[in-house]
Amino acid sequence: MNAIVSIDTGPEGAACRDISYADAIHEALRSALEADERVFLLGEDIGVYGGAFQVTRDLVHRFGEGRVIDTPIAELGAAGVAVGAALAGSRPVLEFQFSDFATLAMEQIVNQAAKLRYMLGGNASVPLVIRMPAGAGTGAAAQHSQSLEAWFAHVPGLKVVQPATPHDAKGLLLAAIDDPDPVVIFEHKLLYKTTGPVPAEAYRVPIGKAAIRRPGRDITIVATGIMVHRALEAAERLAGRGHDAEVIDLRSLRPLDTATLIDSVTRTTRLLCVHESVKMLGIGAEISAAIAESAAFDRLDAPIRRLGGADCPIPYAPGLERAAVPQVEDIEAAAARLIERGE
Amino acid sequence: MNAIVSIDTGPEGAACRDISYADAIHEALRSALEADERVFLLGEDIGVYGGAFQVTRDLVHRFGEGRVIDTPIAELGAAGVAVGAALAGSRPVLEFQFSDFATLAMEQIVNQAAKLRYMLGGNASVPLVIRMPAGAGTGAAAQHSQSLEAWFAHVPGLKVVQPATPHDAKGLLLAAIDDPDPVVIFEHKLLYKTTGPVPAEAYRVPIGKAAIRRPGRDITIVATGIMVHRALEAAERLAGRGHDAEVIDLRSLRPLDTATLIDSVTRTTRLLCVHESVKMLGIGAEISAAIAESAAFDRLDAPIRRLGGADCPIPYAPGLERAAVPQVEDIEAAAARLIERGE
Amino acid sequence: MDQPTADTLTQAPPPDAARQREALRRMLLIRRFEEAAEEAYMRGAIHGTMHLSIGQEASAVGACLDLETGDYITSTHRGHGHCIAKGADVARMFAEFFGRETGYCRGRGGSMHIADIAGGNLGANGIVGGGLPIATGAALAIRQQRRAAVVMCFFGDGAVNEGAFHEALNMAGLWKLPVIFVCENNKYGMSVSTERSMAVPRVAERARAYGMPGVRVDGNDLFAVHRAAGAAIARARAGGGPSLIEAETYRLRGHSRSDRNRYRSKEEIEHWRGLDPIPRLERAMRDAGVLDAAGIAALRAEVEAEIAAAIAFAEGSPVPDPGEVTRDVYEGGIAA
Amino acid sequence: MDQPTADTLTQAPPPDAARQREALRRMLLIRRFEEAAEEAYMRGAIHGTMHLSIGQEASAVGACLDLETGDYITSTHRGHGHCIAKGADVARMFAEFFGRETGYCRGRGGSMHIADIAGGNLGANGIVGGGLPIATGAALAIRQQRRAAVVMCFFGDGAVNEGAFHEALNMAGLWKLPVIFVCENNKYGMSVSTERSMAVPRVAERARAYGMPGVRVDGNDLFAVHRAAGAAIARARAGGGPSLIEAETYRLRGHSRSDRNRYRSKEEIEHWRGLDPIPRLERAMRDAGVLDAAGIAALRAEVEAEIAAAIAFAEGSPVPDPGEVTRDVYEGGIAA
Ligand SMILES: Cc1ncc(C[n+]2csc(CCOP(=O)(O)OP(=O)(O)O)c2C)c(N)n1
Ligand SMILES: Cc1ncc(C[n+]2csc(CCOP(=O)(O)OP(=O)(O)O)c2C)c(N)n1
Ligand SMILES: [Mg+2]
Ligand SMILES: [Mg+2]
Predict the structure, then answer these.
(1) In Å, how far is A227's CA from the nearest CA of chain C?
(2) Is the pLDDT of residue A14 over 70?
(3) Chain C partners of D198 at a C-beta cutoff of 8 Å?
(4) B35 and B156 share one domain
(5) Is the predicted pLDDT of residue C98 greater than 90, yes or no?
(6) Which pLDDT score, from 0 to 100, does residue A4 have?
């Protein structure tokens, strides 16, 4: 029960190679472009440049400029073009170069893409995938480092996922491309170069299911994106102190897998939420509230704690930037406090 | 202790008249325009048309087109113009005709206005006020009825208020205009025609302070905007059933007055949050989480409950539209369930 | 690069008699639909707000006359005319306005979101300028799917000032997409005149900046609109790329139901009432011997009957079940 | 309405010898600042990314030469040159890049947010096109405050495709604000050439759509840029309204530190290296007898010493205290 479960498990019996998160996304895009000619990519510098994070690399050479489209720098327009193409039967995958620039396109994403099916009484479908490189840690400062996933998770009509591993980056992207509704994918920039086992063939990771990355008895640590890795490292350190932490990789923010969360907290009786986005109204708030209004509430042995980004824009100087988002030691300390309080 | 406190109390000894919420805002704008020539208004159709909700009425005639500026329909540009004017020493008050259109201007509001002071090491000030008519109930459907205040409350650098009464509409707006940082004000469209006592002179309601509108012993109902009135009505009905509800008007979402909330919940031992914005990641999530990580957690006698907008865009048909947001009977039922559970 | 000129857009042949009659029928249907909707609104049968296009029927109908079934339109908050011009059923439109399950959007959308995806109307839009990039994207999909279809994109003069206009026209021009941008310039964006909102209040001239032909036409003259639109449609269908048409017109009603008309004069409104496109077309058809007075009267009666039946259908239709409020947010209904 | 023409923008008198020398000094300072920053980045002393304007110094300096203390600029992600051209202290700039408390932004902003509010630089911007409406708003404030100041707004060719460009220029033209829009057209927005991103890749022509004069100048010729900018500044200061200047130039380095230059050829880069604005200005000044070789050498030495001292200052400055991470989000520090 205490053994560490491999963070990446492919489909039953599939042959996995270790590849990077960026390559896993590339592989998903390539297989979708091959499998369905309605699929196309659009974004800034995704052609010969290969994308700011080299995710689309050679795809323009393989599939041509008609299917891997460099847009002008016009985020609102590009999002609207993607919505229109989706309405008219294509399957666009839109990349924002940095998720911060999606602030220019909220109108199309939220007023149009998210609402069209409903506003039109179920008679429209907007099968649109939006890829969002996000997060701090690259020294790119306040306008290139935000984590805005909570905004999108607040919007009915959108689905929002945040893969933490190469395996999920591929599987969730392929599931998103299949999805008849708009899916927003948050990819942490620091993850692109991390590696892990990924099956070569195409597979889907279901949207809306959290994954228990490490079972444990004493506390539930729910983390998103890059924080999953920091939480696992903190869990190792906690194990050294005799504490057995369960680590859940949320994977999907909307829909939220409350069943898995409630079940875990009911067993461990303690909850710590960890995300990089600003603490106030970050996804930790929703998780905490969902637990506090569930049956698990009566099982809690300690207040629910959240760790999130500091209440400030992401600063430039390395020491400040590090202080602005949760680190392994912060997670370890917060979890230990919760456990030790109850003992 | 059980007596109903008047929802609007002006400054000590001030002479109040009953005026509408729209007129209270008008009065605040007029007095700010008179008092400080750096103050100016900009927005769509705020001049001769008087604004979509007639809030700016005659102001262009009083102060001229140089200070009450009809912008082209260009929300991003108008927001940026306001940011630039604020940086250069003016005091813009920007009206979005409907808060839904702020989705076009998130870039300037969030990347620029909210972050400039911090990014520039404290060397810049953006004294900008943004007025946001919001909410459902007018049959205007999904793109003219949203409640997006939680997005703004997620952003460090912004302040976010939501006045529920004519008194606070005037006092919070004047406080916002004084403020050296950007303040976003959410005004519910259905409130514009409601009336209440408002002092004739200029006064400020401090940003960041909640108000107890009805003291009570059995449950704390925290409500925002129009929900304050529904919560008070529900409290009356609960009183008829022998339940004594405390109703808190949150007033300010950022900063959040956690001290008042914690104090109240510690006394009542039960918490119900009510807002019109979508439940998931609405301000109720933050309130619930803030309580669940506070000392009040151990005093709770029931799970924390939230009532928020249904998980859908706002529909057009009247019956559906009503079902999409919390009503008095929903609040009454939810509160009664919490109280009766504990008995 | 040679810029296409306005001359490119003056070549379409006039519609034959049958299509002229159909054009008039649709214009009458729009007019009567909106008058009846206004009346229903007054007596409280319709809630919310609505934006009437009374006086602008020629631009909607003229622009759509040469469209085919596989073609798309995108429309605006002032979209009833476009919807009918593209061939929608007024019974389902009334049902939508009355908030009924039989409406085009099953009562979820109302006037501002009237749409008919199956019929090629990708939707009215509550967001000024919202339809421009969507139209451009639909045109891109058409190209990718190697279809011969085109997209007709309607918007107002006010939308020209939105960034979305600029971004969409640039992409359409750059990629030479099969989309026709039709600006219904009715002189005002709500209360603000083009002189007070545009540095250069001549929309057709903007086409130069986007490498497409632009032309200004009398938007109250069905034939003028049709001439330009027909040429632009043919050009787009043949792979020639996008066009911009500015149709000068005027809304005879207020902006929406709450407008007090403080920003324009009675004289101006009266002047434009004299240029009402419907009597103008009737006169032209009579003068050309296409339809006589009796024929027009018959057409009007036909339209009247259609409107009456449509309202009856709408009023007899069921309202949505409030218990279904979160249905159709997602396919299959997976809510959060 | 008569549209102002490009001729409006060719009248400014050339700078005198002292100002030419100052212009050259600033161009050299920009060049050496960026080379030194690049070197510090390579050895790991600077983190994040940076966008070098090497090769574009003439447009920054030429545009700012006639600006006065009360005037503003807004700048871009490629903003070091603008900042120095407006008179910033390179020591505080280096300190910012090194993430020190003595930096212009106390280490919070870095290269992409370098600003000097007191000196009139309202800030570089990480958002392409983000500065255009801000500049327009600053110009509006100037008008409201009855000041004689102007705003110089820098942006790249890529920004022209953003809606913000369109919305800002329309308002500036409509309201005749004292702002000068300077497009540094270096042929690429990151990897995408103007031919691949603009339906009409001639930026100056866009001015017509916004009722302002527009002119294209050789952006690598200090005198040409100054001529147009000086005229536009004088015009704006006199209440004549905004102008658009397109300065044709080229960035000799990659877009940012991670650029692999896959989208352009060595030949093209070499061609433009031959048009480097600094040797060109030095040659012109020598030929005109304004400064001889010894004078230039002295100037270079002066700049070298300033750079060395600035780096020493920066390296000797304290880093911010991580405990202060949430300071200065609000005045007085009220956090949520
Ligand atoms: C983005 C956005 N801004 C503002 C509005 C409010 N509004 C609705 S219609 C309108 C005027 C639009 O003018 P125009 O485009 O000329 O169309 P018209 O109403 O004249 O047909 C305005 C300001 C809106 N719906 N969307
Ligand atoms: C809104 C936005 N979109 C995209 C980017 C990413 N980006 C940074 S610079 C750049 C190219 C800008 O091109 P241009 O305006 O020509 O300026 P240049 O880099 O050539 O100086 C891009 C795409 C951004 N920073 N902001
Ligand atoms: Mg109009
Ligand atoms: Mg460029």
Answers:
(1) 23
(2) no
(3) 170, 174
(4) yes
(5) yes
(6) 37
Report the pLDDT value the prediction gives residue B169, as an integer from 0 to 100: 98
For A10, A100, A180, A214, A223, the CA distances from A252, given in Å and listed in that order, are 18, 20, 17, 17, 11
Per-residue three-class SS string for B317-335: CHHHHHHCCCCHHHHHHHH
Residue B208 CA: distances (Å) to CA of C188, D108, D310: 41, 26, 43
Nearest ligand 1 atom to the CA of C56 is 21
Is residue C105 within 8 angstroms of chain A, CB to CB? Answer: yes
Q: Residue A340: what residue type? A: E
Where in chain B does DSSP place strands (E)? Answer: 16-20, 39-43, 68-70, 91-95, 129-134, 159-161, 183-188, 195-199, 211-214, 219-223, 245-249, 252-254, 271-278, 305-309
**pLDDT at C333 exceeding the cut of 80:** no
Q: Is residue A204, in this structure, part of any structural domain at all?
A: no
Nearest to D12 by CA among D153, D183, D215, D169: D215
ipTM, 2 dp? 0.97
Tokens of B91: 């005091």
Mean pLDDT of the region A303-322: 98
Residues with CB under 6 A from ligand 1: B 44, 73, 75, 97, 101, 104; C 77-78, 126-128, 156-159, 186, 188-190, 255
A219 and A191, same domain (yes or no): no
Pick the last residue of a domain from A167, A199, A231: A199
Range of the domain at C215: 6-333
Q: Which pairing describes strands A183-188 and C188-189: parallel, antiparallel, or unpaired?
A: unpaired
Query: For chain B, how far is it from start to end, CA to CA, in angstroms?
Result: 21
Token pair belonging to B197 = 């006592």
Interface contact flag, C138 A88, Cβ < 8 Å? yes
Task: Output the DSSP codes for C78-116.
Answer: S-HHHHHHTT--HHHHHHHHTT-TTSTTTTSS-GGG--B
- Number of structural domains in chain C: 1
Q: What is the mean pLDDT of residues A141-152?
A: 98
C319, two tokens? 């309202």
Which of C145, C153, C192 lies closest to C169 in space, CA to CA? Answer: C153
Residue C223 scores a pLDDT above 70? yes
pTM, rounded to two decimals: 0.97
Query: Inter-chain contact A316–D128, Cβ cutoff 8 Å?
Result: no
pLDDT of A308 higher than 90:
yes
> Cα torsion at C132, C136, C139, C143 (round to 10°)?
180
**What domain range is A124 assigned to?**
18-199
Q: Considering every ligand atom shown, identify the ligand nearest to the alpha carbon of residue C161 and give its number.
A: 1
- Shared domain for A135 and A260, answered yes or no, is no
Ligand showing the shortest atom-to-Cα distance for residue C126? 1
Instruction: Take residue D263 and report the two structure tokens written for it.
Output: 């989208």
Burial (CB count within 10 angstroms: exposed 0-12, middle 13-18, buried 19+), residue B33: buried
Cα distance between residue A304 and residue A288, in whole Å: 6
Query: Which pLDDT does position D6 carry in this prediction?
Result: 64
Specify the residue with its C-alpha closest to ligand 1, atom 3: C128
Instruction: Answer yes or no: A75 catalytic.
Output: yes
Structure tokens belonging to residue C21: 């009659």
Catalytic: B75? yes
Give CA–CA dist C225/C247, Å, rounded: 7
State the average pLDDT for chain B: 95
Q: How confident is the model at residue D333 (pLDDT cuts 50, 70, 90)?
A: confident
| Those residues with Cβ within 8 angstroms of residue C270's Cβ, 6 or more apart along the chain or in another chain | none
- Judged against a pLDDT cut of 70, whether residue B126 lies above it is answered with yes
Nearest 10 degrees: CA dihedral of B140, B234, B132, C124?
Answer: -10
Tokens of C336: 């959060």
Cα(D52)–Cα(D330) distance, integer angstroms? 32
